[in-house]
Structures are given as C-alpha cells and as structure tokens.
Amino acid sequence: QVQLVESRGGSVQAGGSLRLSCAASGRTFYVMGWFRQAPEKEREFVAAINRSGTSASVADSVKGRFTISRNNTRNSVYLQMNSLKPEDTAAYYCAAGDSSVSGPYDYWGQGTQVTVSS
After folding, report:
1. pLDDT attached to residue 67
2. What is the 3-state secondary structure (H, E, C) of the chain?
C-alpha cells in the first residue's frame, strides 16, 4: 500500500520558521513535492524536486523563503519554510509522481495545517 505521511504542521508568528517532512512508503517516486490550499482558494503548487535533486521548482510566491530537499535513503521530502507570512497559512499536501516536477502527481498525502499569525 502506497502512503505519503506528512509531519504535523503548526502555528507560528510571522517571520518564524517551520519544517515539514513527508515520508513515502510502499514504493519510491521520481518526483516528490508540496502543494498548499488556503481556505476558499484552489490548491497551488509550492515546490517539487526530482530523485537526484538535479531538477527542482519553487513557486515565485515562496522563492527565497522556502527550500525543498529530499532524502532518498529515507524516501522522504522536506520543506523548510522561513520568513513565514500570514498568507502562507494553508493546508500543505505532499505529492509524488513519476513524470517531472511539473507533474502530474499521482499520490497525495492527507495534508497538514500551517497557520501563520501576524
């Protein structure tokens, strides 16, 4: 059974940092990444990285603040979020696939909530 399990998110004040992790089980994936969905908004891409780390993509809205990394030994992907802003508040979802950082993504985690207060 394939599963993507995200770490617990959390609540921080603006300017703070959080690190999300996602562990995959059941198989490995060529691409792993993160999406987010704020209340009453559509799910949006945040960042993704391929297996070797030679291809990574980060959304403009978080570029310079968020960093994606991957540990293939642990079959995990991480999202380091710095200089958080209230507009980063959202449910964050881990995603995985075998195509490219542009998608499509075939597997999804359950999501973890990140709340940034001003």
Report:
1. 98
2. CCEEEECCCEEEECCCCEEEEEEEECCCCCEEEEEEECCCCCCEEEEEEECCCCCEEECCCCCCCEEEEEECCCCEEEEEECCCCHHHCEEEEEEEECCCCCCCCCEECCCEEEEEEC
